[in-house]
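Final report, Chapter 2: Outcomes

The project's central promise was a pipeline that accepts a single protein chain and returns its three-dimensional structure in a standardized token representation, suitable for archiving and comparison. That pipeline is now operational. To close this chapter, we reproduce one record exactly as it appears in the project archive, with the input sequence first and the structure output second.
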Amino acid sequence: MVRVGIAGIGFMGWIHWLAYQRVRAARVVAISTRDKKKLAGDWRGIQGNFGPPGERVDLSGIAAYATFDELLADKKVDMVDLCLPPHLHAKATLEALRAGKHVLCEKPMALNAADCTRMVAAARKAKRQLLIAHVLPFFPEYAYARKVIDSGKYGRLLGGSFRRVISDPLWLKDFYRPDRVGGPLIDLHVHDAHFIRLLFGMPTKLVSQGRMRGDVVEYCQTQFQFRDPRLVVSATSGVIHQQGRPFTHAFEIHLERATLHYDFAALADTVELMPLKVFTPDGKVTRPKLGEADSVLAFEAEIKEAAASATKNKPSPLLSGELARDAIILCQKQTESVKKGKAVNV
């Protein structure tokens, strides 16, 4: 049983809390937040773009700390789950590792690759696991794609295209600040950068064409190059200024004997979905059964993976700090390519 302390009770802290209630291998024993209401269990003010709204929670038997230092000093805590703002991830991770805790840190891992490298090195020195909460590989459609690719059922992986675009998040005042949230690539595209790195390995070169907003890329399209020249991989991500479509993500993944296709869009008045399909050379269209629609299910799988890694004190192939660091490197290289107007080596 991994004993967990959640640092930061905002939207992601709430979603993680819900996931922990379903996982036997991990138990929340402590929280830390500066909000006095939340320390008393009143989480009703929490809302997000998916999942249930916050509720009153029973914190009986759970230590509730007003400071992060107090949580780190709690010897009952084996793993710290960091749900803090992005600009605090690196500092808090380093402090938690020095305190001898395993760390599950929300994405993005950090705002730059240098901090990511320091975090990875600190975990090795502390002999603790650094896990980055990239939940996308656990979403049913993406998990199915991983499973099919790994099985070899449809032959060799040939490439794919990935899309993740939002309307301007006007409620996030620091969204475009590279020292606070990081902008669309670090906050949004990092999901697909991580998944691309997971499926195809690290690119050797990339070229991005896009628009800047201050010091960050607002919108871009990227072509990734690999040692295997037969791989054709691209991604589109960023912000549009039409508020009628708050969010969309999609993929088309090509294998020798199949194409996987999925497209989801949240609109201002409804949701439009093209469910996951598998196209095969015989002309058939297969629609895999992915189980019930549950907004917390992917986070439950993520928490199970993190708990297993911490219990065994062995790296997770899906949540490792090295993998997440590479995703941040790709985002930085894409920004470099947009600024220079040419391809860059990775």
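Archive annotation: The chain has two domains: 2-135+299-319, 137-290+327-345.
This record, like all others produced under the grant, will remain available to the consortium after the project formally closes.
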